[in-house]
Amino acid sequence: MEISAKTANDFSKGSIMGNIARLAIPMTLAQLINVLYNVVDRIYIGRMGVHSANALTGLGVCLPFISAVIAFSNLIGMGGASLFSIERGAKNTEEAAFIEGNSFVMLIIAGILLTILGYAFKEPVLYLLGASDITFPFANSYMNIYLAGNTFVMLSLGLNYFINSQGFGKTGMLTVAIGAVINILLDPVFIFVLDMGVSGAALATVISQFISACWTILFLTSQKAVIRLSRKYMPLSLERIKKITSLGLSGFTMAITNSLVQVMYNANLQIYGGDVYVGVMTIINSVREVVQMPVSGVSQSAQPAMGFNYGAHIMDRVKKTIKYNSLMLIGYTIAAWALIFLFPKVFLGIFTSDQKILSAGVNALHIYFFGFFFMALQFSGQAVFTALGMAKYAIFFSIFRKVIIVIPLIYLLPKIGSLGTMGIFMSEPISNIIGGTLCFVVMYFKVYRKL
Asked: Which stretches of 121-168 are DSSP H helices?
């Protein structure tokens, strides 16, 4: 049977903290491992030799596109998995199976379309993303190969949400770990031994994501899955597509606006600081991905428990899950902020030995990550809105922080006095403080107190 009769992984039973931890620990590790796909590329490329700084900057130019791929995998994977959890909690197992099958087909279609569009508009897009004539060849080399494996990336990221939403946190972590380990092993071989440089980094990523995607599909079609992926449930339904994309718009908006903000950062830093500051931004994005992943991992691990109990109408457990999730996120982000503030050169030195980038990077890190714990408030609120199917609130606050606050500040602040590049970096903490606080306050009064 495609739909298992298992009663395991029932989030309405057992310790709430135990349910969160059972998913949070492996999911957080999985998120951290997932970062290695691209971060390890940057670490190796930053040590390529005489062209390392330009190569690293060229790779940084590609990051907005990679964020866009993540955005579409969130749109389908996160949205489908949230709806999947609600239907499972309500005992609508066949509908949950249809949601899983429809999400699989949607991921493939989205991956193919992004690949076609990427090849069609690659050159003008890379210049728009902040490439210069010096860094374009490196960015172009990376994108030529990365685009070929784009669908594998979509499947690996998007389907893993369904493994985690069924309570298999360790398996979800293993899915990511398999690809990451292969990527780490292949990177030095392709980059240095075969002297492929940036192209080698892209090829290692594509191969590792292909293997990770195959593993994910094998598990979801196996007897171990609570609800198995089957052709029977893959015929697309317009109503299901609407529901999946509606719930996924929050995660999509967060990722796509992050991509848009990266474009704005690179373009304006190129104007006010040149390739050096685009290189600094590449490292900042890498550090942010590493320290933010536990936040994402914990908040996503709480969503299946929230959605399941909400679908089962056990509101007391929903409230406790919200409380524990918020406290864990705030505690972690305060600790992460302290480490970055005290040891900025350690974080910068992981990626480069270029003295110009190191010199410019210390102040940039201090400013960009100021008040980092306010981001926890944003993630806490977003997790609740997404898990409980309140898409319009999740979407609004994703747009509010990035589009309404950050992007205008990126253009305005460097023109005030002589702030220049430092004004650009200041836009992030300001948006975290305003956007994060407002999102959490609205979640508390509109949802938490009414449950």
From this structure: 122-128, 136-146, 150-165
